[in-house]
Predict the structure of Beta-phosphoglucomutase.
Amino acid sequence: MIKGLIFDLDGVITDTAEYHYLAWKSLAEKLDIEIDREFNEQLKGISRMESLDLILKHGNKEKDYTKEEKQKLAAQKNEEYQQYIEKITHDDLLPGIEALLKEVQERNLKMALASASKNGPKIIRQLEIEDLFKGTVVDPASLNAGKPDPEIFLKGAELLGLDPTECIGLEDAEAGIEAINAAGMFSVGVGSETAMQKANYFVKETKQLKLKDILKQAEK
Ligand code: BG6
Ligand code: MG
């Protein structure tokens, strides 16, 4: 029986996946590296430093920067990203998400947040949903391995006091779906059929995420 839902943040609850993309694209351009949306799919769910490494590799420049220089580049990306998220308000919940969160509460299901983002706490505060995730936000700095490793979702289940099989994970990233599957949870994806190939159930847009349908699929 399902007792909890573990949410990714960027691209599921709010459209920050787009802001990550824009900020990385702008940094990549300064480094003379071209990235497009197709390449960006690989960056979803991946930590800041790992994302930078993938971009540098994509431009054959992985050996051009020292560790310190890479830290500066990642900080530069984060500064631009933070300018975007500064403007986030409650109205920036993606379509259908407010209703979904309400349904989850009404059914007395538990919720946790499994985001790789160190900006996560700030974003949920601005979205005015932090009360829903009291004590159930996994700290990405505490992880030994990022997505696609299952650790972040397993920690989410632990924070909820649930067995992974009692949880559903929701993701927009390929790496995230792999992490949920490896954690032994039912995976729900939001995105294109290609990106969401490995999801146990997927919808194209957040407004199609209905708790009733999700539970029906997961408990089948
Ligand atoms: C994930 C995003 O949620 O967080 C990635 O999907 C991002 O794109 C990662 O790189 C880390 O985010 P931040 O805010 O700590 O740079
Ligand atoms: Mg995401």
